[in-house]
Amino acid sequence: MTELISGLGQCPACRARNLDDARFCSRCGARLSQVSSGADSLMPALSSASLVTDRTLDTHTDSAEELFVADPLIGVVVADRYRILERLGRGGMGVVYRVEHARIGKLMALKLLSGELGRDATLVARFKREALLASRLSHPNTVQVFDFGSSDGLVYLAMELLRGNDLGRIVRHGGPLGATRVTRIVIQICNSLSEAHAEGIVHRDLKPENIMIVRGQSGDDVVKVLDFGLAKLRESKELGDVTSRGAIVGTPYYMSPEQIRGEPVDARSDIYALGALMYACLTGQPVFDAPTPMGVLTKHLTETPIAPRERDGAPAIPSALNQIVLRCLEKDPALRFESARALQTALVESLRRESTSSSVDLLLDSKRVGHLADQDSEAATRAEVERYERKLKRRGALALSTALGVVLGLGVGGYHLWAHERAALSFDGGEREPNDTVGTANLVPFGAEVRGQLGRRLDRERGDRDFFRVSVPPEATAVSLSLTALPNLASCLWVYQSGEETSLGRYCSGRMGADLEIGALTLPAGPYLLLVTQDRDAYDSNPPPPVLENVSDSYRLRLARVEPTREREVEPNDTVKDASPIAIGQTFHGKLAWMRDIDVVCLARGSGRARFVVSDAPRTRAAVLRVTPRGGARDGIAVRVHGAGTDAGKSESDVSGEWSSPEVDTTPAPACLELELVVNPWAPPPHPNVAPAGAEEYTVRVEAG
What we know:
705 residues
């Protein structure tokens, strides 16, 4: 079922593992040192660094080592209806699974947003808006989106399950495609884009890896376009990374000039990407190539492309198709085809001039296109899903009317009986099982400490989890959170605002025996849910920890009021918008107390000329404090600050004891520092994948310039 492409290379920048035909790292975008050879070298632009299955919806999958690790989500039922069966692949947005709809017994693909995206409330809200738009697209050349939402902290997208290969893999392994085949494929892509553009949806991430090719009943190519709406979620971050670090998440080969400049994009940006896609499929080479992603983007902005038919080794390309591709690649959007429908018309005319076949008419009829692909009897269709939803609504209406009758029959007396029994469960300092769902969350008075156990697991794949409900009073300007450690398992604390499906924060100690202490956290007044669960993330090369139980040891959890001070950090402070303020002459103290914690401190605009002085306490050899200036002459140039007396290595990027920044001028803009823990490259191997958190304090002081 799964074909492994041999050869996994390690990125020199972030140490992520990539395939040896990848030119840029699939995680951080850095250029890889490996140079591919043979047939694959013809398609550097389409190198997807992938492990491919014949049913995958994502071309970026896990490393070979990860394929043999038991996935903790296998067997889990998401949103009470999607039973996860197996992992199909991993992409920039998350992980794709083959799932069974537990109610209708049909197969689907389920994409779960990656942890970073799923924890960002703004991104999740935007994801839901984009997914709602994508779910309205019904053309058979578009992968159908059936459902979307969030459940138990998992943000998901349920989609049509396909059996086929992405266009990038087809070209990478088979070489350039013939002009007729490319034209027929792009005509179908235009079908999908025409519907989306009419709904005001711009794809933004058209590339061969987002085009699935399914074999039709007669052997013809049937096109399915993936990921409408999802590229927008990471677009600003990608371009920000290019500007500040010279790297990009994803591929730069298909970006339009206006998208690279960060300008508003419309349908004509997708036309440019289609031109670049046609170019790569026809010639086996990208429109532009360079040693770095920034070099590729610069060429898109400034250079005129070589005509595809003039490329060395390119097969015969008709003159009309050659001109169509070049028109799509015009720098000025006004000179391109004004719409996908106009491009499609030109392609149809070109195909009819070159071929006497009338089968092109089939590709323009959505009903006939819908019947071209082989139907998988096990895979769900939109009609089946909609039929189930209608049945569910009818049952819901009947259940509602029945429930109303019961409530009216019981009357006020029943309510008082329920309230009396609820009040009888007074808080005694310990958890009351079961409390593994939001509905059974234990009520805990604000400021009180509660004892609990991560005891009997829910099933073979899911450990115990404890929910607690606490209300923050209006007079509490900040709170402290503490969770004591268990000796045999690492734990996580999730914080939800009551009524919200997305967590406000996920705080994981990262190792067994490590307490979690958050000294000050801003939480507006109101009710909150606290979830305590086992941390099953794999932070090193070992497999994720198994599901564990502990019936002999208790943790202690407390949410209490605290008075914040300017000298100590108040979370959240992981962005410039929420940064901790610091003034000239002040010393600031902070901790990176949970895995992947990031702190940002900023000197206000107009404070004058000053410099930052940073020092850190000695840490475990596996972790080191990385400080990245935001603003000033060293913007984006990071330095590792080792504790006094520890070995700082021999790199210019390492400092032992104190580090002083160059003088910064805050007149035009604030000056900021971003602080995080990273893996210490000078520590004895083996190195973890994620630097361990710690209770050690760092200090930042500001001296006048």
